[in-house]
Amino acid sequence: MTEYKIALVGFGGVNRGLAQLIAERNQSWRKELGLSLKIVGVTDLFLGSIMARDGLDAAELAKLPSSKGAFAQLPGGSAEAFNETIIKQSGADIIAEATFTNPVDGEPATTFCRWALEGGKHVVTTNKGPIALHADELKALAKRNGVCFEYEGSVMSGTPVIRMARETLPGAVITGFEGILNGTSNYVLTRMEEGLSFADAVRKAQELGYAEADPTADVEGHDVRLKVVILANELLDAKLTVNDVNCSGITSLSPADIERAQQSGERWKLIGSATRNAAGAVSASVEARLLDNSHPLAGISGATNAVSFNTELLGAVTVSGPGAGRIETAFALLSDIVAIHKSVSKK
Ligand SMILES: NC(=O)C1=CN([C@@H]2O[C@H](COP(=O)(O)OP(=O)(O)OC[C@H]3O[C@@H](n4cnc5c(N)ncnc54)[C@H](O)[C@@H]3O)[C@@H](O)[C@H]2O)C=CC1
Ligand SMILES: N[C@@H](CC=O)C(=O)O
């Protein structure tokens, strides 16, 4: 049994979900997974920070009020976010990075990942910015420092997609994919079909922990664009940048559009897709498409996501599951930690 010391950077829905899972399940993980986690530091722009090399009480952390500077209420805590100190000096073996996704330059999350990897710490992250914009650099940095850099939750939350395709589809030859890759926008479309207004549906998605800090990223397709870049580069060996992907969202769809579609046996879905042509070039897009109800993606509703990989040997292989959610995405971090444990145990 191995105990990993972990520091949490960003303590919003996802890392708080991880603290909750640690509080509830650490004992069973010892037996089931051969590992346990000890939280040695937490830092958050809004809540402040806390560090304890002997370990913090995960249940107490998970219950911390979401008020400005709340860590100052705990013994040894501070209202200031000492990100660099927590990453470099908490003694953590693993850094769980879950701050805001910045779709423009991936910062400051990319710097947090760099600090950790350069210091010989494994990184698990659900943040799409560093992966869509700086994956090659960060993977190379991890390799040079003999540590792992894992990011399963950056696409489709806790639903296994990246690792599943990487580990089980080699040889099947993936030629492209299309999918519903944003929980918030799919939830909004589903709720609008039930008669809710766009604004109320977005508000509900925020309450449920699905939406980005700025939900424009969800409904304008920018979040899906990052995920399309990540999947295309990981699985189609593309070298796409965000600017290579034409992108539009669901904001121009009116309640009348949604109703008209329903009356003609169709549904609007926000689809991210990429295809490799015979010459090897990969083209990708994000757009709202009108799907016939018989289309395999038409029945995917709420915050559920699905992606269909087109393969030469198997035809379409479709994976479906949660695309957002606090605990669901915290599970993605756990799956990354399990992957690290397997890799470390092999050495
Ligand atoms: N919530 C979800 O369903 C999913 C979220 N993600 C990604 O995971 C990450 C975290 O998501 P949530 O926890 O839902 O977001 P959140 O908005 O609930 O929490 C993010 C936290 O990061 C903190 N933060 C922001 N900038 C910081 C900085 N410079 N230094 C320290 N702390 C900082 C904020 O104060 C906030 O508490 C985001 O990048 C998101 O895109 C990925 C998949 C699913
Ligand atoms: N805001 C995103 C969260 C996961 O990446 C979504 O709604 O899918």
UniProtKB/TrEMBL annotation:
It is an enzyme of class 1 (oxidoreductase). Residues 160-338 form the Homoserine dehydrogenase catalytic domain. InterPro entries: HDH_cat, HDH_CS, HDH_short, NAD(P)-bd_dom_sf. Coiled coil: none annotated. Gene3D superfamilies: Dihydrodipicolinate Reductase, domain 2, NAD(P)-binding Rossmann-like Domain. Keywords: Oxidoreductase. Pfam families: Homoserine_dh (PF00742). Its EC number is 1.1.1.3. One of its GO terms (molecular function) is homoserine dehydrogenase activity. Belongs to the homoserine dehydrogenase family. This is homoserine dehydrogenase. It comes from Metapseudomonas boanensis.
